[in-house]
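Consider a protein example.
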Amino acid sequence: MSPQTPPEPSPVSHKPRLSTIIIVIISIFVAGASITSFYRNRYTNPDASNIPSENSPIIQPTSTFTVTPGNYQNQNDNPNFDNWITYTNHQNNFFIQYPDTLRVTENEDDSVSFVFAGKTQQMNTEFYDGISVRFSLNSLDGRSLRSIVEEDKKEIDDVVETISEISETTIGDMEGYSYTVEGLGMYRKIYLAADTQRYFEITDFTTDPQNEGYDEVVRNMLNTLEIQP
């Protein structure tokens, strides 16, 4: 009896398993999401060249009613307002003179604050002694200055204790309107027509319990306010 030939081995199957296919699909999905995220961040977020360096100027917003050491110049002795210098805003093309004892802060909303804390003013409290004036130059956007003043007044009319009627005012060569607000302290809003397209909005929080002449300083500052052509 002749020996039987052993059967040939079955060929090895090369079909991938289901688990392997799932892993490959997941890997491709994750890689694709990572690449998409990379390019989205690259073109929507600022790159390193736009991040301020340690030598870049830091603009700190000035608090309206709270005095902090970082935002205000404190004067404990008799105030000296004899030395006046000129502040020029190159972005909005206006300038104003002010005593060099005031601290100037360019705020994040493009307004500019001039502040001097009086000798009774305490830190980390509402502002009750000193000079605090904020200027901004805004566009009329085709509206009349009177309508802008009326809209602004209406917005705060229901949230403050007392607000005066709108009155006409003239400062230097500029005409406009003003009103006084009593709520968290007292302050005055002034709107002046800078030219046919823009207007100054001025908020004056100045208060002078010690009769140091702060109001006169502010009046003299406002009279030097000019727009550059």
